[in-house]
Amino acid sequence: MGHKVQQEQVKRAAESLARVEAAVAVLKAVGPKPKAEEAQTVLDAWSDVLTYGNRVFTRLEQGAKVGAAKGWFDGVKHLRRTDELLSYMLHARNADEHGLHSVADDVPSSVTVSAPRNMRAGEMLVRPILADEPGPPNIIGWEPGPRAKVTEFKPRHIALRAVYDRSVRYELPSRHMDTDIADLEPATLADLFASYLAKLVLELGGVPKGALAAPDPDG
Length: 219
What we know:
Blueprint: H1 2-30, H2 39-62, H3 67-82, H4 84-98, E1 104-107, E2 110-114, E3 126-130, E4 139-144, E5 149-154, E6 157-160, E7 163-165, E8 168-170, E9 175-176, E10 179-180, H5 186-204
Antiparallel strand pairs: 1-6, 2-5, 3-4, 7-8, 9-10
Helix pairs in contact: 1-2, 1-5, 2-4, 2-5, 3-4
């Protein structure tokens, strides 16, 4: 009976993992510089990573109630509290679901311009460089006017934030499993998180054949 319960929860954890991996695929497809119309897609995918990632842990905990499996999950819970990435993802999920502030922001593109003080009224400082593609205008850079200089251009991006969970602030992670994290792009953190979750699902018992055929509507 215990083994049957464990395998059922592993199956449901694998279904939630599939939702995480689908969201990761979206983040990778959009990339680090989303267009204006893609920004909400990225924000939604990031929220899915947090939500369904947490459900993977919940399902695995339900399947690891006794014996060696319980001891194994006790170790998982400890690592989730102490590993920078796993801890951040846990508290970001709580903040996303219960908090008052966003856990990620759509930051529009910006440009910093240097120009002489005696610019004439109406003289052009910069003009936008638009991507040669259909759809709404997509600014990919700025061209300076004859007497101005573009000193910095930041493209539109999704910025993850430090989060508050029960009045405690949790900073963005810099390490995961004793390894430095290359960058703080949503796709990077989500991919590392999904890889760790997949390892847990396999460790608790593997995925029964056909488990991913029909995702669990409740996660």
